[in-house]
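User: Show me a protein chain along with its predicted structure.
Assistant: Here is one chain, sequence first, then structure tokens.
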Amino acid sequence: MSESVPPIRVLLADDQHLVRTGFRVILEVEDDIEVVGEAADGERAVGMARALRPDVVLMDVEMPGVDGLAATRRITSEAAEPGDPAVLILTTFDRDDYLFAALAAGASGFLLKNGTPEALVEAIRVMARGEGLLAPELTRRVIATFARPGAPTTGAGTAPEVALRDLTPREREVLELVARGASNAEIAAALHLGEATVKSHVSRMLAKLGLRDRVQTVIFAYEHGVVRPGG
């Protein structure tokens, strides 16, 4: 008999009790997701993330005291090992400044609250696999913004020239494909490799570049000219 897979542990951070309750109802009907705690402000979210070690923190932006962006920055600054919490920003506000500030703070995903319950559940599963995620309607905006001359910077990654020179030719190929949005299965097919091998290449590439996930990888690649729109 196969071993059971532990559920994805989720921490909810939102200052509205009814919103947290709604998220809990949506998530707890899923067999593979467990809500391990709730926080009504950013300070509490940081403390609970340290104590509970969730897989994913579902983070609102506008909260009293320490807001969601500052809390995200504190949580991700302490997340240095695989399995440390990833932060998914979920907000009502479709604002570029929030989106880019969240990415700069180290968030691995960004969704709007007008999405569907199914999209939220899938986002949490994607994040728990160690992949970043943006709502589809935000992806083109991010690429367009970070790809243009004089674009803002997230500060993601180590010194790009040195880090890029450290990549093997295969890791460089993987970087370019990740930056174009390819999944591990798609990269494996394109490079005629096994998915386990691709996963190893992705992990080493992220480590060498000082990047947390695929969202940061896309931005890094466009910021530093590894790929260009339409290329």
